[in-house]
Input
Amino acid sequence: MQRRDIIKAGGIIAAAHITGMTTLSALANMGSSLKSSSRMPVLFIGHGSPMNAIEDNSFSQTWRKMGKSLPRPQAILSISAHWITKGTKVTGNAQPRTIHDFGGFPKKLFDQQYPAPGAPELANLTKDLITYSHVQTDDSWGLDHGTWSVLLPMYPAADIPVYQMSIDYDQPLQYHYEIGKQLNKLRDKGVLIIGSGNLVHNLGMVDWGNTGKKFDWATEFDTKFTEWMNKGDHASILKYQQILGTTARMAHPTNDHLLPLFYILGLKQPGDELKYFNDKFDYGSISMRSVVIG
Output
């Protein structure tokens, strides 16, 4: 080996050592602000219409029950279908604003606020845990309706710190899955990680009368994905577009509402059980099927 190669190799090793020490240091610092806890479950929640936040229906009723039955989190990390960015970001603001990122709904919905505190320290920790990609903090975003419309029924007191992670839509499916894997240490520190989207989401085919109309492609997609999740067949899930073809394109003309699920599946550990809730369709083309893992 030439001298310049030795120097180069030494630099790489040193950089890797520094990165590792940074992560270990961040974990140690986190221990001072968060108590160790039993491993938290992770959730994928079909959030559907923003009106679910204020309506008393079967979806919001289930969310309320879950807020009472789940172990109380010390903080919540939400990965919402409604925060799409170039690159991956986490909110670092101490008081995230409530974002009303929708239109055409009653004033009562726009009047809703979810004044939960942020989690700047956890945002920095999350950056350090993720080595698969470069992650930035962001103070301009807040809590969009993919987050607060679910949390308002679950934790109405808004007294649990909440922060969000964005979705880099330009990245392949494997990217989102791998980042999910690297968030696992948060589960042992009382952080509840929620992916908020929908298993089937085609707004162009919505049955606005909500007559109970069923589409074969929607049922097929929901059924096949559930089978894969039950078997732990993540390899097929990562290739769902090639395998399901037209059915996949009908279920997700754009896959922003499915991508949060890839983070949650990446978090699944051996021995984690899957339990489904709200497993039915709304407006014909929106699957509200949700899952708790762990």
Observations:
- The chain has eleven helices and eleven strands.
- Residues 1-24 have pLDDT under 50 and may be disordered.
